[in-house]
Amino acid sequence: DVYKIGGIGTVPVGRVETGVLKPGMVVTFAPAGLTTEVKSVEMHHEALTEAVPGDNVGFNVKNVSVKELRRGYVAGDSKANPPKGAADFTAQ
What we know:
Elements: E1 2-5, E2 9-15, E3 26-30, E4 34-43, E5 46-48, E6 56-61, E7 74-77
Antiparallel strand pairs: 1-2, 2-6, 3-4, 3-7, 4-5, 4-6
């Protein structure tokens, strides 16, 4: 989900599935292709220096409006194999 919090801005919320999420990272959202910087990461109203797999977190992003992000979007590190939408796939 994505929330707009007064005085803070746009806050996407979700679970870290793989890798880590840190303030200062540049992330890309798929399938929208939006790239932005993570300003802060919080879990249960406490700031984190790093979120690890399994953590349910909210993270503040720069210069992205709530209307640009939707539920189900995937965020990934834009420097290391950023997420992309699949053109097609074959089911077994």
